[in-house]
Amino acid sequence: MSALPATGREWHLVARPHGWPKAEDVALREVPVAAPGEGRILVRNHYFSVDPYMRGRMNDVKSYVPPFQLDQPMDGGAVGEVIASEAEGFEVGDHVLHGLGWREYANVPAKHATKVAPSLAPLSAYLGVLGMTGLTAYAGLFDVASFKEGDAVFVSGAAGAVGSQVGQMAKLRGASRVIGSAGSDEKVKLLVEEYGFDAAFNYKSGPVAQQLKDAAPDGIDVYFDNVGGDHLEAAISSLNVHGRATICGMIAQYNATEPSPAPRNLALVIGKRLRLQGMLVGDHAALQAQFVQDVAGWIRSGELKYDETVVEGMEHGFDAFLGLLRGENTGKMIVSLTR
Description:
- This protein has nine helices and 16 strands.
- By secondary structure, the protein is α/β, with parallel strands linked by helices.
- The chain folds into two domains: 7-128 and 307-336, Quinone Oxidoreductase, Chain A, domain 1 (Alpha-Beta Complex), CATH 3.90.180.10; 132-282, NAD(P)-binding Rossmann-like Domain (Rossmann fold, 3-Layer(aba) Sandwich).
- Helix 3 links the parallel strand 9 and strand 10 (177-182).
- Helix 5 (208-215) packs parallel to helix 6 (229-238).
- The mean pLDDT is 95.
């Protein structure tokens, strides 16, 4: 076996952000790399994921996932190659998906690692379209929102990793109309010309409520919310009677220091008999096998397209995270450590 690396770099949280995270809230530190103990594997990470939910973990508040600890490495989805193993069933050279991202080398309990096949899909895809974000889209649309053929669907943050998949999945399952919002004219063009959305608009170009009404004059039946705020307010106005909304994320509010004024029209939920339901992807593990079967088939056939925004280099990991929060990504935002 080759000699193991003596040290590796990790991103540590060193201060709790107030509002937008700043460079001084984190530190890139070099730390010793230990050989794996019994039942563990040492992984050289090739890619790690940055995701909007990580902003909430920077706050010291009780939530559905524990906060990041100060002066400790942050974590999240990662995929890489096993370089040392003391665990049955894992060999040097295997590729695995695990939860210890934000670092070059991960000492992982084998029970928390899943083998993946680079022959079936690029490794980075297991962090996106075939990973947590893809399952979020699949479960949020078909299970939480109870999508049915003929529904008109609106997706906010539609050029992101989750939103872009939601819109395409809805079209593949017979949506009557799919509308998306995005933050640039280039992304709007991508949604319509590449992902097959029926209509899309730039939310920076005018009031969201009016743009949505123009794009969906007959209303919508399903709203997939990645943004919150004025998007949720607009969707409530446009939802038809018995409409359903999956509340997946509210990125517009993650860095806010004051409460959001919207939505101001929640009373409409009563008369329209709307269902607004929050979701966490961890509640939908039972759908994993069906999700992989359906999505892998759509990818092979070319029916489902996906994009990745790949930031090269460990030293740019925090920049990638800030770029994600600013909406600079198209599709999944990933940090590559392969150079």
